[in-house]
Amino acid sequence: MRAPRRRIVVVTAVHGPSARFLPDAYASLREQELPGGWEWHWLIREDGEGDQVAPLVPDDGRVTFLQGRAGGPGMARTMALAHADGAYVKVLDADDRLTPGALARDLAALEADSAIGWATSRALDLLPDGTTAGFPGDPEHGPIERGAVLDSWKANGFRAPVHPATLFVRRDLLVGLGGWMALPASEDTGLLLALGSVARGWFTSEAGLLYRKWEGQVTGQSAHTDTVERNARMAVVEARARALSHFGWRYPAPAASAGEPVAPVGR
């Protein structure tokens, strides 16, 4: 099998109301510096087929704009994976910004240890007045052992110890888990917990993301906090993570018997 390209594919789901923030996200991408031989490519997929997003997509050969029927950000990101031809995938929500050096730090962590499947970093809230605020309770800088994310999430009222919007992940591992969960929200948390059940991760204590707080964001809508729906989402997210752990899935896969192929995720 041909080795994946030395490319970080940055995946962004966008809809009409958040499209106005794309120039800021693009500016943060242009500031990224990568080691020699590495490049980034930005996949922007609109959740729908309207006319508000396209005019705000940068005219840059490193940017690909896609459209498709609406199904939520998780579906948009997962469909974008059909065009993700790099070794790694980085999440960047349309209304967020990367900090300088974020991609290089993520890349260094995974390139240094082939047993690390994914990475996250510290996130700061970007408030409407331009100031930032940190989150309490970040883990220590360094590796995150399998199962630790689920345990912390369960013990802290369904609050993950690391932010899924900062995710950087090996493409083969992401595809092996089926991408983002088919949920109306928390699809990124579901993926994070699944990754944490099958592979060791990494946390960078230096801030890697400015997480924009604004009135129109999906997580600020009343439906997102509806108790009945939220409980159902959390139940499915937890069940998936525990099932993966129970069945013994691991990344990297244990060494196969002589003559048998080694899958990126396996029993």
SSE blueprint and pairings:
Blueprint: E1 5-14, H1 22-30, E2 39-47, E3 63-68, H2 73-80, E4 86-91, E5 97-98, H3 102-112, E6 116-126, E7 132-134, E8 142-144, H4 148-155, E9 168-170, H5 171-176, H6 187-198, E10 200-212, H7 227-246
Parallel strand pairs: 1-2, 1-4, 2-3, 6-10
Antiparallel strand pairs: 4-9, 5-10, 6-7, 6-9, 8-10
Helix pairs in contact: 6-7
Report on this model:
The chain is globular and about 45 Å long. The protein is α/β, with parallel strands linked by helices and 267 residues long. The two termini are 21 Å apart. Strands 1, 2, 3, 4, 5, 6, 7, 8, 9 and 10 form a ten-stranded mixed sheet that branches. It is 28% helix and 25% strand. The longest helix has 20 residues, at 227-246. Helix 1 links the parallel strand 1 (5-14) and strand 2 (39-47).
